[in-house]
Amino acid sequence: MDRVDDILAQWHRERPDLDVAPMGLIGRINRLSHHLGRGMEKTFAAHGLTAASFDVLATLRRSGRPYSLSPGDLLGTMMITSGTLTNRIDQLEKAGLVERRQNPEDGRSVLIALTEKGFAVIDATVTAHVATQARLIEGLSKQDRVALDALLSRYLKVFESGTSEGKS
Amino acid sequence: MDRVDDILAQWHRERPDLDVAPMGLIGRINRLSHHLGRGMEKTFAAHGLTAASFDVLATLRRSGRPYSLSPGDLLGTMMITSGTLTNRIDQLEKAGLVERRQNPEDGRSVLIALTEKGFAVIDATVTAHVATQARLIEGLSKQDRVALDALLSRYLKVFESGTSEGKS
DNA sequence: CGCGATTATCTTGACGTCAAGATAGGCGCC
DNA sequence: GGCGCCTATCTTGACGTCAAGATAATCGCG
């Protein structure tokens, strides 16, 4: 019995004509995402980051040497718009964690690169972050984790099929 | 193979010391929440609402007659802060969908009530919303839905146990 | 080789959200 | 009954996000 069950029971009483089973599943995904996000924010804040800035630094870090990608490349893996990305890069550049470099091969484009400081920050943060995630998931048995992950993966494929785009 | 698999593979190459299994599960929940939210926003917008305003109206509607709750009651079922709620109510009041009434039993408190117009809007919107949700979930087999919902419910209980509060 | 179409990034303006603190009404001990 | 404490709601200021459009550089057809 979670909050979603209460919500569904209320709808069933008020609008018995509606099939609210999908609402339950979608509501649970949303609420879990929210709880998990709040839990992870604290770790980011402890390292001077937000979920937004962590996202950019982590994408650059895991891309491997030379830890630099164009804004367009970053957009491809992040679920945000171009304006949002510009804003994120501005903040990180101001903080000295990334720098904008000219792209020698295309004057329209730019390369966003981790600075030395940025590398140190993201490497320390991601280590703590993984520990936080492990803690956030410890309430679920090993079996449930595997089963849940498999089902989520199958569902996510509906929106992000193969290697192409993930439009909604 | 979704985007999350790509991300995990990159981390495994760059930081083989980290156990990224939790990151996969949490990342999939986040991305699904995002995709689903984007899909549902369009329905809200078609009825002049946002996810935020829908949330308030729906909570009042499903609470049953007389379709009125105090801000404190609303906060109990919504995952937002009091300042955010004040802002949402201000917008809805300006749009004529809810109204603030004095609480005869407690001068500190207020009652937020659906107006006639607000009732009509939310009733029409929720009907369309349920149809949208049914569409967003149709990529998943009936069996998978049931299994996924059961696992999500078990996981959500970690954060929202019983009838008490759901702090993170 | 020049100019229109395309691509890459940034700008603008409007919202939604949060944390922290301010305001204001009620409650209870003395 | 008065005064300090608690509770309910609102205010403030800083961010993050989006949609739509602006700017700037490259591409490609004639």
Automatic annotation (TrEMBL), chains A, B:
InterPro entries: HTH_MarR-typ, Tscrpt_reg_MarR-type_CS, WH-like_DNA-bd_sf, WH_DNA-bd_sf
This protein's record includes keyword Transcription regulation: yes
HTH marR-type domain residues: 22-157
Matches recorded under SUPFAM superfamilies: Winged helix' DNA-binding domain (SSF46785)
Pfam families per record: MarR (PF01047)
Keywords: DNA-binding, Transcription, Transcription regulation
Keyword match DNA-binding: yes
GO molecular function: DNA binding; DNA-binding transcription factor activity
PANTHER family (UniProt xref): TRANSCRIPTIONAL REGULATOR, MARR, TRANSCRIPTIONAL REPRESSOR OF EMRAB OPERON
The protein's name in its UniProt record: DNA-binding transcriptional regulator, MarR family
Species for this entry: Enhydrobacter aerosaccus
